[in-house]
Amino acid sequence: MKILVCYFSNTGNTEKVAKSIAEGLEDENVEVLKIEDADPSNLKNYDLVVLGSGIYGGKLNKKVIDFMKEVSEYPPKFAFFNTHQSSTAYQKAFKRIRSKLEESGSEVIGEFDCIGENLGMPKETILGMLAKLPPEEKKRQEAKIEATKGHPDAQDLANAKAFGKSLIQ
Ligand SMILES: Cc1cc2nc3c(=O)[nH]c(=O)nc-3n(C[C@H](O)[C@H](O)[C@H](O)COP(=O)(O)O)c2cc1C
User: Fold this and answer.
1) pLDDT of residue 25
2) 77, 84, 167, 169: least surrounded by Cβ within 10 Å?
3) What pLDDT score does 92 carry?
4) Closest ligand 1 atom number to CA of residue 119
5) In whole angstroms, what separates CA 129 from the centre of its chain?
6) Peptide bond into 40 cis (omega under 30)
7) Residue 12: CB within 6 Å of ligand 1?
């Protein structure tokens, strides 16, 4: 199979996951590209495209959305992945892209997500936001942020690799 793993990553979390997914696909003909380096007119030449992004303000990065708008011919299969700070997965992240693909007869064969520590916000901004909260809520939010530290971790990346493997089984 000819496979493209294509992603947007601002602070490297989604990139780590992309590389682990590609490791799971090691016996296939796999290419890993940042979305900035991928050519939307070339997607039709792959058997499977695995598309990923971090979640920013509840959305995929605009480059991913704009890239998909440029694609006129889809590959037969797609899969998605994302990294996010919140403790629950953002199920709707790929909703629009998914329905467009399904309308066009491209099959979505899997979706993966994991927590990614927010490395993109200055510490002062986070502390400033926390300082505005009532004490109990502040504690809760601090605990939530603490729980994201170091993610994606080794287990997340092993899960990503297993996800990659599962796509070709
Ligand atoms: C400006 C900004 C906005 C973010 N918004 C969200 C959000 O709405 N929901 C969420 O779960 N995580 C949010 N995050 C956290 C990122 O999704 C998370 O850290 C992700 O792993 C970043 O991926 P990257 O390192 O590949 O860029 C945000 C991070 C930044 C910097």
Assistant:
1) 96
2) 169
3) 87
4) 19
5) 26
6) no
7) yes
In sequence order, the β-bridge partners of residue 7 are 34, 52
**Three-state SS annotation for 73-89:** CCCCEEEEEEEECCCCC
5-29 pLDDT per residue, tens? 999 999 999 999 999 999 999 989 9
Question: Residue 15: what pLDDT?
Answer: 98
Nearest to 110 by CA among 1, 2, 5: 5
Asked: is 2-116+151-167 a CATH 3.40.630.10 domain? The reply is: no
Ligand 1 center to 22 CA (angstroms): 22
Neighbours of 66 (CB within 10 A): 11
What are the residue ranges spanned by the domains of the chain?
2-116+151-167, 119-150
What's the pLDDT score for residue 91?
A: 79
Ligand 1 within 6 A of CB of 122: no
pLDDT value at residue 55: 96
Interatomic CA distance for residues 97 and 100, integer angstroms? 5
CA of 113 to the centre of ligand 1 (A): 12
The reported pLDDT for the residue numbered 90 is: 78
- Record the tokens describing residue 7, joined without a space: 């992603």
Task: Say how far apart CA 47 and CA 10 lie, in whole Å.
Answer: 27
pLDDT at 169: 86
Distance 143 CA to ligand 1 centre (A): 17
